Amino acid sequence: MIRNSCLKCGRCMEVCPALVHDPGFNGPRALAVDRSRRPWGSELDTWSCTSCGACVEACPVCQPLTDAMRLMRQDLQDTGHLRMLSNLEAHGRSVSRGQWSMVNMEGTHLYFPGCMVAERMPETIGGLVTLTSGFGGLRVPDGWVCCGSPPHRIGKVDVADELAQTNRALLQGTVYTSCPGCAERLGEDGVDTRHVLELIYDHIDELDIQDTSIRVALHHPCHMMRGMGREVLDKAYAIINAVPGTEVVHMRDRDRCCGGGGGVMSARPEVALRMARERVDQAVAAGAELLLAPCPFCVMNLRRADRLPTMGLLEWLTSIIA
Amino acid sequence: MSRTEVLIIGGGVTGLGTARDLAMRGVNVILMTASDVCSGASGRNHGMLHSGARYAVRDPEAAIECVSESKVLKSIANFCVEDTGGLFVHLPQDDPGFPGMFRRACASCGVGIEQLSTREALDMESALAPWFDEVLAVPDAVIDPMSLGLANAYMADRCGADIRTHHQVEDIDLMNGIVRYRDLTNGEVGELRPEVTVNAAGAWTAEVAGMADLHLNVTTSRGTLVVFEGRLVDRLVNRMRMPGDGDIFVPGVGTTVLGTTSSPASSGNDDLPTGAEVSALVEEARAMMPGVVAHRPIRAFTGVRALTPGGLGRDASRNFTIVDHGADMSMAMLSVVGGKLTTYRLMAERISDRIASILGNGSSCRTHLELLNDDDGDEIPEAHRARFCWQYGPMASEVWSSCQDRGAEEICSCQGVLRGEVEHFVGLGAGGMGEIARRTRAGMGYCQGTGCLLRLSSIIGPGAMEAISRERERGLLPVTMGVQMRQSAMRDCLMRVYGVRP
Ligand SMILES: Cc1cc2nc3c(=O)[nH]c(=O)nc-3n(C[C@H](O)[C@H](O)[C@H](O)COP(=O)(O)OP(=O)(O)OC[C@H]3O[C@@H](n4cnc5c(N)ncnc54)[C@H](O)[C@@H]3O)c2cc1C
Ligand code: SF4
Ligand code: SF4
Question: Which domains occur in chain A, in start order?
Fold first, then answer.
């Protein structure tokens, strides 16, 4: 399936979160390399892979394990994903329609909300409009559809391509988004995509932020650090550090996946929940009073653990702006 | 000393097939082989089940035998045959007269061929060079030599044959009818007085004949093959020309074998593959598959074939000869020279017919009528059944019964081999890594024994480890480049960490 240069070092298996939390999951090398080269055996169960990319990052020979996982999924179908696919078919969003209606946004910066933010966390957009009003404000393109990341990760590449087609014409120049999943996918499609926190980082001095005395931990979204680049993460830390009175604590595993990606929340919700609990427990153990994540999927899944107040980074910033 | 009707020397497919045939006829037979079963040419070949096409032009007699025997094996040994079909592709730089000759020869030998367009062939095999100008499809297939050999041994044993591995014949006294042998496991020597001795020692046939002071004019030729990672082709792909180096690709399980070189061998033991042979093969094969250079060679191996008197290498007939020696001695002796894996059953039948007439046994051959596999593996869970049936044939359920509980642990992740499989054969007396690998395929995958070596050592003892990793290096050294170089470095590191190597 992939040009196999695996050395059997076992690094990918060691770092894979799904392997820990789903006893039925075989792990990246076993699925993407070993089992796929055998003509026999049972159907491959790939649905607990969050596409976090930890395995690829750890692999000394850079085996494209996540790409292979996606290729394997191409011919499979999990019932958990049917709803997502029918939502996309019906209204171009990966989730069902929420309450969001286009707020009047006449700003200069092109903003791509993404399904999760638009339909599940519309308050985020209102907050971002306020945050950015001093330096241009945001503008949402009319007629945007899902970035294609959710179908792409479950192997429905044709669906993703069709969505990308629609978006391409609307997304010219630099596009800001608050979802690293969208950013990565749009980036792969050739759109110059940035996280809104990068825009805010550039203007952080212009914001009047209240003093808070709180210990926060920052979760590193996989698609941000591995998809967009670690420098974006550095900017997230810089923003937190600009908030007076805040203390940052670090979790034991710096880069552990929260379980929210790769369609696992819909296909294997119990696995996603176990991963979220592990992550949140780490934040609690580190002494955090608040867990922040600059990604709507991470926020969504981490909240399911229900153990620690969890917020989007920018939502938090909005809430403490004077 | 108990009465032995027949002693077979050599545990390759020829000897094992003969043991099965004779045992099925009710003949009392002992087979002795110097090391493991199928450790000679029978475990070191491409595993082509020849349709006859490859021999049609040069050796029509052999081709005709292949036509019928490949059909027989597709039915009696279908558990270890993958009926992939084969292609012959003609390249512009090769003899333009050959395709015509080839088509006529196939027609006269009864090899079914079908003309394909270049487009059709490329759709089937996208890795091929697009510039060939003629393609023919033939009914070639792939057979697993180890599964075939083991099934023959198992069925022979079930019919009462006594198969003794690690028994080396050292002297044959035709005059007095005595054969002396050594049990290599403990060094003890013994004697047998068989009525008939069969010399089926493959590349060592002349040597064994020499023990009886007989001279056999046998030449030996070595052939090196390279195993690549990945199934680069889905059918056997042959170059349509007079057989030469680097002109066959044979698809396997997650691998592809590229064959073969052909050069004089100094003896049956002349089986160390060299880097020069690997380079020569790959260089030649580029004409058919330019991308082959970018693929990962897993290992190389060399087999030594015995050829019937005459020319050397590919010009010699691959057809077999049965030589009758001791007509007026107190013990009859037959030597069998040449042949192919594909025709092993026919050879066994001919030898057994001769023996039956010597012994006055009136029963006739049934090996082409009875399946080599009577186990459909019903008890084996679906996830494992296909592999167990393919590898173990008639033994599949027996092996599976060792794979419960702790035995279900995966011990070799390249090949998906379970702990129980290894324990099963260790329980039956399989000793070193070679014997375990030949049966279970553990350690035969792309990493060539990295983590699995450590897991195996918990079964066969840590003492075997160094020998194992040295054994691996034989086949690895000639391909230690690119990825396999990194792999070797990785393994070396691991061995040091675990104190196997200083
Ligand atoms: C490189 C190569 C590729 C080939 N590819 C194909 C192919 O694709 N298809 C095909 O049909 N055929 C192929 N062949 C031919 C085929 O492999 C052989 O014809 C066949 O395996 C020969 O089997 P055998 O039993 O006669 O000899 P072997 O398998 O060599 O067995 C002889 C046995 O005799 C034992 N022995 C030797 N001396 C003694 C002694 N003194 N006492 C006890 N035992 C002894 C040895 O240990 C050995 O195990 C190939 C051959 C080679 C070399
Ligand atoms: S992407 Fe993440 S979850 Fe998926 S196999 Fe790799 S490490 Fe495991
Ligand atoms: S990390 Fe890479 S080289 Fe190591 S086992 Fe996994 S796939 Fe193989």
Answer: 11-76 (no CATH), 84-201 (no CATH), 208-320 (3.40.50.1860)
